[in-house]
Structure to design on (254 residues):
């Protein structure tokens, strides 16, 4: 069975995902170009101002990244082993220090992320939240074509999962459910729907729920101009991090 057909059948078996199925059909037919709107413009802009993860953490948070990998060496080694054992391919680890120190800087109690995959970003967040008995709220679509639901978040140790609430729907269904539970967040990490309109919708939904001093992080901002356009619209001064050939946007809400 082809991947497309397998995915379609899996959607049909889950009525809760029908709204997302409808959106995907429209995105892949009527709106095929919109996911990449402004891509060239934003890549030029991002490249012109990008700095390293270490520099941003130093400038924004006045913290040094050198201790993270040594402090959590055993946990990270076990997480790497878990990823290697996983029989399906999902998104790999990103800028873990950036995410971890954002939580440390804000002394985070409530963190929201979209996109989980193996759970690398979740792990970085939870390593900080456990110190303050905080909670991570995550939105992640089921991996329908790969039968991968059981592996989502697989690198997260069992002892950290008590600080974690995972919502297995598309963002447009997950986020309203999460926002009914929590009035404000200290850190937001975006790594889900990469389309222009998907990003814009989520950015606006979450920005107004971030407290002053909260940290906003968005991965893969070079896919289109949504992040750049959002920052311009909201008059936000942002940093851009170049990491493994891609760009990450980050700012502290004023």
């Amino acid at each position: 069975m082809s991947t497309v057909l397998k995915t379609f059948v899996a959607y049909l078996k889950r009525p809760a995902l029908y709204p997302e199925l409808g959106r995907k059909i429209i995105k892949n037919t009527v709106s095929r170009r919109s996911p990449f709107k402004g891509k060239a413009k934003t890549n030029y802009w991002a490249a012109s101002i990008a700095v390293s993860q270490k520099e941003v953490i130093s400038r924004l948070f006045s913290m040094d990244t050198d201790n993270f990998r040594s402090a959590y060496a055993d946990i990270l080694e076990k997480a790497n082993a878990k990823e290697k054992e996983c029989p399906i391919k999902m998104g790999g680890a990103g800028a873990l220090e950036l995410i971890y120190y954002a939580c440390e800087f804000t002394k985070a109690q409530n963190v929201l992320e979209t996109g989980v995959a193996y759970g690398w970003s979740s792990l970085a967040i939870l390593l900080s939240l456990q110190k303050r008995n905080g909670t991570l709220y995550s939105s992640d679509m089921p991996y329908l074509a790969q039968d991968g639901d059981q592996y989502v978040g697989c690198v997260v140790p069992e002892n950290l999962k008590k600080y974690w609430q995972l919502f297995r729907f598309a963002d447009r269904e997950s986020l309203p459910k999460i926002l009914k539970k929590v009035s404000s967040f200290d850190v937001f990490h975006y790594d889900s729907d990469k389309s222009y309109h998907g990003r814009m919708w989520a950015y606006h939904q979450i920005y107004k729920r971030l407290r002053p001093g909260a940290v906003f992080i968005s991965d893969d901002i070079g896919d289109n101009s949504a992040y750049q356009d959002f920052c311009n619209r909201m008059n936000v001064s942002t940093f851009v991090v170049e990491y493994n050939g891609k760009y990450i946007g980050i700012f502290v809400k004023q």
Remarks:
- Strands lie at 110-114, 135-139, 164-167, 185-190, 210-218, 239-243, 246-252.
